[in-house]
Amino acid sequence: MQSIRFLARVCAVISLGAASVSSTTVAQVPATPDSALAEALSRFEGEPLSLAEAIDLAMQNSTIILDAQAALAAARGRTRRERGGFDPEFFSEAATQRDEVPTSSPFSGASVLTNNQSSLLSGFRTRLTTGTELSTSLQAVRASTNSSFAALNPQYTTYAQLTVRQPLLAGSGVAADADLRVARLGESSMEAYLDDAVHTVQAAVVELYWDLYAAERDLAVQGLIRERAAALLTESQQRARAGLVGPNQVENAKVFLAEQELAEIDRQEALYSISDQLVTLIGASPSGAIARYRPVDSPPADLQIDDPDELVARAVEANRALDMARRDIDEANVRLRAERRNRLPRVDLVGTLGSNGLSGDARDVIFGSDTLRSASAGNFADALRQVGEFEFPRWSVGVDVTIPIGPRRRGGEIDRLRAEVERAEQRYEGSVRVLKEQVRRFHRELVNGKQRLAIARRGVDASQEQVRIGLIEYRNGRSTAFELVRLGADLAAAQQRYSQALVRTVKAAASLSRLTSGVYPFPTQQRSEDQ
């Protein structure tokens, strides 16, 4: 009778209590473990870590976020580079030249004509986003010669000119700044990529944190089951020596103990594996001899539940990954429109407006019986003044036309770009469908959270009742140690299902926050009393 009472106490300790479920919450309420589970949890070692601390570390150290930040920096650099294509340029060219030319004409002024010339050309040019090309320049030339017929020697010649080239068909409109438009869209896409990376990392931290919470609770339960299995083996051995049970009862208890010891090792490995995954994600290792984290928060009690159709619509509108897909469509359309524009003939309107200047040292030119002298005598400053005052203006207006012969190159590129637009649209549509399916799935998990937890709680209660009935039957000789072993295993499984139910709903809420890019709020945290 004393042995039966001892076994009853053993199985009663195996029956771990779970928390009562509040009927007023929309999701699960954390369990309040009994003293045995609380004591088992208190024996665990590790560095305490709150969910807020884990998220903060991930925001600082996550390689996913750092990669997204680098991608955004690269996109901004690309945009800056493309904007630089429309920056004005200064150009300058200097040259000097000497020619010695033998002559046969008496009008050359020398038998060997020697010409020396130095020139300097400087100016600015730029291209506008409309495709307009502007160029302004000033050229100065100093020429000297040994010809006796040179009226100015040295001679100073100046030229000033403004040139405007405006594409009318190809090269105009969207084709003029297509690369800049694509770069800006790419920058916007990378901003969305960074936001999506932040929400993805946050959701991943939340899921791993609650997985760690459940794994630690499961290990505590498994440790207690293993301890009670050892006590059951001891009791069976005592009863066998007293002749109350046969040797098969002892062997059943040994098998049960071996299974629980192996299960405890598996649970411990799973716990450390989840902790290592969390370390990889947040980029910070725990200190101390026990290199793992311990969660100090418990799943929140109240979670917001929205209308599913409204939540789907908000997700499609706010999801940053979909924003990236939209930018891909926009980029493909910009390239297609630019190529269609460039397929047209090249027709450029070209206009110039300029001025000339001439000066130099005047020389008498004797031609027959006449002595001639140039009226343009002066210095280099006089030549520049003439240019500035438009004393000798010049202008021109014309059209430059280029018509490609054969449509294969441009036509083939348009066909390719049109197909790229179609591909981008189909990728976007596929992403929308997957997003809607995921939002509805996690919304169902959120709605069913309370019911799931209640069912898991009933499973624990039923397992406890099975153990109670099994003890009565064992006391009356209608049950064996094998049956008690099986009932203990069922209770352990029920407790582990309860642990999963505790965290599944809050993980679904974190996934909804990720899919809606923060429109659905991240679940709040509260301090765990049992940790």
What secondary-structure arrangement, pairings included, does this model have?
Blueprint: H1 2-14, H2 35-42, E1 47-49, H3 51-61, H4 63-84, E2 89-102, E3 112-127, E4 133-145, E5 152-167, H5 178-241, H6 247-282, E6 293-295, E7 297-298, H7 308-318, H8 320-342, E8 346-362, E9 364-367, E10 370-373, H9 380-388, E11 392-402, H10 408-447, H11 449-475, H12 481-515, E12 526-527
Parallel strand pairs: 1-6
Antiparallel strand pairs: 2-3, 3-4, 4-5, 5-8, 7-12, 8-11, 9-10
Helix pairs in contact: 1-5, 1-11, 2-5, 3-5, 4-5, 5-6, 5-8, 5-12, 6-12, 7-10, 8-10, 10-12, 11-12
Notes on the structure:
There is one protein chain. The protein has 531 residues and is an alpha+beta fold. The protein folds into two domains: 2-74 and 183-330 and 421-527, Outer membrane efflux proteins (OEP), CATH 1.20.1600.10; 89-127 and 132-170 and 347-402, no CATH class. Helix content is 56%, strand content 20%. The protein contains twelve helices and twelve strands. It has helices at residues 2-14, 35-42, 51-61, 63-84, 178-241, 247-282, 308-318, 320-342, 380-388, 408-447, 449-475, 481-515, and strands spanning 47-49, 89-102, 112-127, 133-145, 152-167, 293-295, 297-298, 346-362, 364-367, 370-373, 392-402, 526-527. The protein has a six-stranded antiparallel β-sheet with strand order 2-3-4-5-8-11. Strands 1-6 form a two-stranded parallel ribbon. Strand 9 (364-367) and strand 10 form a beta hairpin. Helix 11 runs antiparallel to helix 12 (481-515). The longest helix is centred in the middle third of the chain and has 64 residues, at 178-241. It is rod-shaped and about 155 Å long. The two termini are 38 Å apart. Residues 1-33 and 525-531 have low confidence and may be disordered.
